[in-house]
Design goal:
globular; 16 strands; single chain; eight-stranded mixed beta sheet; 2 domains; alpha+beta; four-stranded antiparallel beta sheet
Length: 383
Amino acid sequence: MTDDGDLTDRPGDQAVLDRAGLDQLIAVLLQEGYQVIGPTVRDSAIVLDTLESGDQLPAGWGVETAPGRYQLRKRSDSAVFGHSAGPQSWKQYLHPPRRQLWSEGQDGTYRLPPTPETKYAFLGVRGCDLAAIRVLKRVLSAGGPSTTRPFESLFIVAANCTEPGGVCFCASMNTGPAVGTGFDLCLTEQIDEDGHRFVAEVGTTEGARVLTLVNRRRATDAEIVEAELAVSDAANHMGREMPNVDLRAMLREARDADVWEDVASRCLTCGNCTMVCPTCFCTTTEDVSDLAGDNAERWQHWSSCFDLDYSQLHGGTVRVSGESRYRQWISHKLGTWYDQFGSSGCVGCGRCIDWCPVGIDITAEAARLTGALDLEPDLGERR
């Protein structure tokens, strides 16, 4: 692999890295002061964790997914990104599960927590998850600098998807398998008789600068076309799809449908779907103090609309039944999210299907509601 000078000095340029080049990219990002987060194998799953080298990547590992089922499997090749979404999303780094809001000492002094200085580099962000990052940024922008700061220094190395999983439906949500906007670099992995390589597209000037520090060569027209075809073909192999109707209108009309009662008879209201969802952002707060009462702190942590007390008001809990809580979740995710933020809250990653203990499938439930209401297809764009 050679260094072709300034062939990747601007957005839109494309180059090729070999497997060693990917490892070098991680090393360069570390040298640039980034904490690199990417996929690795742990606890019989492909999870996100801090990477110190390319040796930690899940080379040769894939997954089998289905409603309520996730299983690690050995691949016949050494693909690094040959797997679909795991149990975690990038949300945990951008919207931490638990963070301190303020503290107060015995002297009554009000103190804010130290500002985190971590610069993240995300490696292997799929199209669905990149869309989720854009959605989450839009949602959290209302919180001011304290909630948007993690996005400001973020470096994203996206990965186009060529092998969707059994619960993936990003194509029907217009979020994949090709990644959208917002990446610094985007990789498309290819393994064939000519070797193991990654076609790298530059998305930003910072991405171009970083890529010039990595050994690479110019991408041929044939390699670029081959990569594009592999990604577009993946759209035809999705494990699921969302009904092609106006979901907002459907859910407005479906408030009293019999489907809700049937779903509630299976739903455990455990909140797994909201915890693994890359866009769910609900939180609650708690105040704690030490035993001596000299220090008080307020903490924010993730919550869920499936929690019984989440809708607690002065007169009691608004949504008592599991039926009403599931209806609230799916109606917000696919419908009223548009009213709040101008887009769907669902990106088609399939995690809520995968990690539901009883295998409830959001696409199947939407299809049941659609069938019951006999709505016309939605010819508009869902993004």
